[in-house]
Amino acid sequence: MKQFKLPDVGEGLTEAEIVSWKVKPGDTVKVNEIVVEIETAKSLVELPSPFAGVVSELLVAEGTTVDVGTPIITVDTGEPGDADALSGGDTAAGGPPARDDMAPPIPAAAGETATPGDEVAIEAGLIGGPAPGGRTSVLVGYGPRTTSAVRRPRKGHAPTPSASAAAAQQAVQTSMMTTPVPLVEPDVDEAELSAPATTSRALTTGEAKVLAKPPVRKLAKDLGVDLSTVQASGPGGTITRDDVEAAASTGQQVWDGPGARGASSSGAGWLAYADGGERETRVPVKGVRKMIAQAMVASAFTAPHVTEWVTIDVTRSMDLVDRLKSDRAFSDVKVSPLLLVAKALILAIKRHPEISAAWDEANQEIVYKRYVNLGIAAATPRGLIVPNIKDADRLSLLELAQAMAALTATAREGRTQPAEMAGGTITITNVGVFGVDSGTPILNPGESAILCFGAVRDMPWVVDGEIVVRKVTQLALSFDHRLVDGELGSRFLADIARLLEDPATALLW
Fold first, then answer.
1. Is 411 found in the same domain as 314?
2. Most exposed: 243, 253, 265, 376, by fewest CB within 10 Å?
């Protein structure tokens, strides 16, 4: 038997939630076959199997949050000495010792054949290192092969069987509180989940324990029922399906917010189905919401923020948007005012490259970046995320439109990967889509500036001494005053405004 432990899929991941299993005990899996979908603080990630064999046991139930390094699945590979691999000992046949933790293998490149022995080490050039073409691979199992496969050096000493058992037990008891359902939730066969490998598991919340089988937990998610408030009637205090359904029909509070099945279009949040419901409901802070909170607090109290505003006439830009929509070259992509704002921002950076910088506190250095990884703040059912378009400054207007469309589609599907949110240099947040005029956005950590684009409105405007109706919007630029002084920030914002007022100005730059 071999255990697959939850790997760090990038950016120092410490924990993740098991969203859905793609296999069940008894299934035969191949190397690199997707076996589980996890939700990190930033995205949904599919993990491939590092082994070929038969699934012996699913060690963690869906909906459970576990730490990196926790065993999540056991696979019978049929190799001699597999039983010893569980405890990290040498194989009976005298083969190499089992690794301290397992990570998925790098997929075979074109023309290569992946074999059950394709196990690789986490080393420079494989995880987080540059790959051909400048792409960074953040998860073993994705990205091109850049070095030959070697085994990870064995750590100080292998864990004992009792340590492995303790880790598995801890994974079982990790928080399984009901939270807004992930954007993509699988259809799970209750018979599969009721197998011995997924029997009732305990949830510890303070001093209270909630006992419920995975199918019951899934039902609670579907109905939005908080299991910690359900009265159990099953053996040993186990919550049954009837208990959950009764709670949902007799006034139990339910989640009506993002991700809830059958949620209202407003996504209002916690609602009481009947009078007398709880006046307050506590929801665990985790996933995207936890990541957002940590990042915003760190940014707000580390970088001295300054925000400047400018109100501009964008009638000519809106006319250009209409012309582009009828252009054959742009017939297959969405053209919006945000596209021109992004292009104007990129052109302004070329005139003021100092705006693209980062503060290195550890080395007391300013890092000037001669490239633009343009972040676009996206509101998704999982929360606010900021994926970025790599090397956006090298793209034509059509290529930029295509990249923005792909970024938006991926974000809406909840499939944005950690690598797509790493390495941003500057961000645009479009509050205009909500009918908001402007705001004072907080910097994305590690970036020097963020541009807020407000709603475009018909407003009276003075043109050649006469008041006429024009398309008007407001831009707000927040920047890190350690890196950007008032003059640089003002000139940069003024150039963006100038380009949007008259797009033809770009021909002069």
1. yes
2. 265
Secondary structure class of 212 (helix, strand, coil): strand
Residues annotated as catalytic are 481
The sign of the CA dihedral 402, 404, 405, 411 is: positive
How many domains does the chain fold into? 3
Tell me, yes or no, whether 384 and 474 share the same domain: yes
| 337-351 vs 315-325: helix crossing angle, rounded to 10 | 120
Q: Are residues 147 and 260 in the same domain?
A: no
How do beta strands 270-271 and 457-463 pair? unpaired
This prediction's pTM: 0.55
Q: Are residues 227 and 99 in the same domain?
A: no
In angstroms, what CA-CA distances link 215 with 20, 172, 199, 426?
A: 12, 16, 10, 44
- The pLDDT of residue 12 is 65
Last residue of a domain, one of 239, 254, 284: 284
Place of tokens 């009918």: 435
* Phi-psi sector, 222: left (phi>0), alpha (psi -120 to 50), beta: alpha
Rounded Cα–Cα distance for residues 400 and 494 (Å): 22
- pLDDT tens digits for range 314-362: 999 999 999 999 999 999 999 999 999 999 999 999 999 999 999 998 8
Q: Which helix (H) or strand (E) holds 48?
A: strand 44-48
Total count of residues recorded for the chain: 509
pLDDT in tens, 126-171: 333 343 444 433 444 433 334 444 444 444 444 444 444 444 344 3
Q: Which structural domain, as residue segments, surrounds residue 75?
A: 1-174
